[in-house]
Amino acid sequence: MTTAPTLTDAAAARISAIASKQAKPAILRLSVEGGGCSGFQYRFGLADEPEADDLVSERDGVKLVVDSVSLDLVAGSTVDFIESLGGAAFRVENPQAAAGCGCGSSFGI
User: What is the pLDDT of residues 43-56, one digit of tens each?
Assistant: First the structure.
């Protein structure tokens, strides 16, 4: 069985705040596309509802949805929200990633 990606408390709180401002459901879609500096790149976006083939995990009423194709590349990952002097961003801590890049949104396996 594939382990669903999870959200940290910080990520769930940030998604909830963004969704509230945009009057949308608190559902974050994480997907993986080819490209980026390391071979694959993460994509984030608010979703109106989960799709039929999505795997859904939830924290504090916020849902994280991942399509079945992307799931193999992000299984066991944690999505966090980091704020620092350099800015604020969602970060994926992916145990499968063998390589990454400085931007934090691209990885290789």
Answer: 999 999 999 999 99
Please report, to the nearest 10 degrees, the dihedral formed by the alpha carbons of residues 96, 100, 105, 107 taken in order.
-50
Nearest to 14 by CA among 77, 62, 84, 50: 62
Enumerate residues 6+ apart whose C-beta is below 8 A from 59. Answer: 6, 7, 8, 9, 11, 12
Report pTM.
Answer: 0.84
- Strand 99-100 relative to strand 62-66: parallel, antiparallel, unpaired? unpaired
Range 60-69 burial, b when 16+ CB lie within 10 A, else e = eebbbbbeee
Q: What residues does each domain of the chain span?
A: 6-108
Q: pLDDT tens-digit profile of 21-51?
A: 999 999 999 999 887 666 788 899 999 999 9
CATH 2.60.200.40 for domain 6-108: no
